[in-house]
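haha ok so turns out i had the wrong file open the whole time. this is the CORRECT one, sorry everyone. sequence first:
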Amino acid sequence: MKNIGVVGAGTMGIGVSHLFAAGGFPVVLVDVDEATLERAARLIERNVRLYRMLDPASNAQPAEVLSRIELTTDLKRLADADFVVENVTEDWAVKGPLYVEMDRICPEHCVFGVNTSAIPITKVAGHAGRADRVIGTHFMNPAPIKPLVEVIRGYHTSDATIAGTRDVISRAGKDSVVVNDSPGFVTNRVAMMTVNEAICLLDEGVSTAADIDRLFVECFGHKMGPLATADLIGLDTVLYSLEVLQDHFRDQKFRPSQLLCKLVYAGHHGVKTGRGFFTYNI
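then structure:
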């Protein structure tokens, strides 16, 4: 697989495009909004510089990385793609029809990588018309500097698709772990419950946001506390993920915290809006 398509220029689409372009792959980044694509280009340029400071071994140059990324609102530009990573919102009304359209445009051999937080891969594959070539590719944020990708085998995903996906991820400089399909997979099924419980503790006045996170960082050695992690993921994405888990498992243990709902309804989505449990300069 050589030609990479990325659909959705939000936080994850930006990171995945950056990752593959820095790895030498030509990338077509598609979004429905021109302004979102312009913002993506600015952030990728900034992030290439920033991540070089965090990884002195990296020799990526902003202009070189951007030169490998075609920005477009035309989904038909995926007609030559070998591997597409889809990163659109976790709204099934948006995500489901998109796969029908991509299946019509992309070549028969093209593999669809689903970068979702919680939606089952087998459900997505049911809309794609190429179920054996649909696979979960759960990149973490920020994708260019996370060493590992959670790869999810759907019910119909073939061994060839698994091998090809792990190979292209490896050539982009990352390792991968393969898990079987289940809502939230391994990482988010655990992480979303942890984040939600931390929000409940804050809502009940048991502790402050800063001290909840400090306990996880200094007692457990985590790099970030659960509330800062939620801000980085995006509180809207956390809420969508919990709703998907609650819907699929019919289990109240996944019921979203009322404080989380209130913040999302108020437009406080974390880092990307400048305010969540903490405040950020954007």
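The radius of gyration is 18 Å.
again sry for the mixup
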